[in-house]
Design brief:
This protein has 3 helices and 26 strands. By secondary structure, the chain is mostly beta strands. The longest helix has 17 residues. The radius of gyration is 21 Å and the shape is globular.
Length: 384
Amino acid sequence: MKRVISLLVYSVLAILLIMGLGPIYVAPSATSPALSLYLPLLLAQIHTLPATETPMTTRSDGATCLTTPPPAVSDQNPAFSPDGAYLVFTRFERGYNLGPAGLWRLDLKSSQFTRLTPWEDQDNVNLPGSAWNPVNNRIVFASDRLDADDLWRIGPDGGDFSRITNHEGLPWYIEPSWSPDGRWIVFETDRLGNSEDGTVGQIWKVRADGSGLTQLTSPTPSFHGEVAGTFDDRQPNWSPLGGRILFQRRRLPTGQWDVYTMRPDGSDLHNITADPAAADTDASWSPDSHWIVYSSDHGSLPTPNVFVIPATGGTPIRVTHDATHEDGAPSWSPDGKWIAFESHPGQEEDTPASLWRIPAPGATTFTWPNWERTGTVRSSCSHG
């Protein structure tokens, strides 16, 4: 009888998948002969998600493991929900930054995982930091699902999967983050250029409805005193208080990365890290906009670790301490207590990553932003 019931269950699942009803998530049960019978069909769409996918592994620096992805799969770019109960992140199916890639949601209390974007041979990638907006409760990300790399948004339950920008060919529109009021999106455009990876980035912004496309960095030789083609600008994040945008910049063709901030109109640039001997990348904000968290090999570290620095510049404070792992893509929790980040072993950049979190350093105590000015915190998430 148990075998008959199992066959019926998996038959129903197979029919649902054939009908195109999207991915189905099931918890593992006792071994069933039906599983081996239907496995080739089910693996195309079903992701088996136990109640707790990862053991609570803790490193010597106090960082705790949040995900243990399947072999060769890489979990990256964690960003907190406005209430701090969830993380959205990108799962790359074939290794570090190797797609196809999709957005996932992690319930930090129950350790339940939910896939938000559909299974497809495309890249859907979010940025750490201000990817999940507190006002419109939407997650902004980049996707090439309709050929060109454009900006998209999605609800925390996978609904309202909609396109924001619509263009053809180059440049690629990637790495977006919200303004705190949800009215604007700042993002990176990539073109072919004379950098180590063959592309050069610039920072732009656009309204949430796709209008008002505005370039912020290096468009002309006279723009804010810059020389066009001199810099490579990437990964912008809008501050929670709205007054500044941070991004990483290097001088072409082979300069080191530093973290900069500017006003939302592209003026008043400041080099925050100003460390010519270090590569400072993957930056995002503290909830009160007074601190910046980022990845760096400051101090000649063998692998980059997570640091924080005052938003006006100053002495970096090291957060993670692991000489065998590269820690990057950090995001600060809305209550200021945690920093989530990706980590992968060794110095090879293509090694798959997993997600971790660590307590924020005590030196970075702060007060909450004035949400009456920046927006109302709300969430329609249901526990997955």
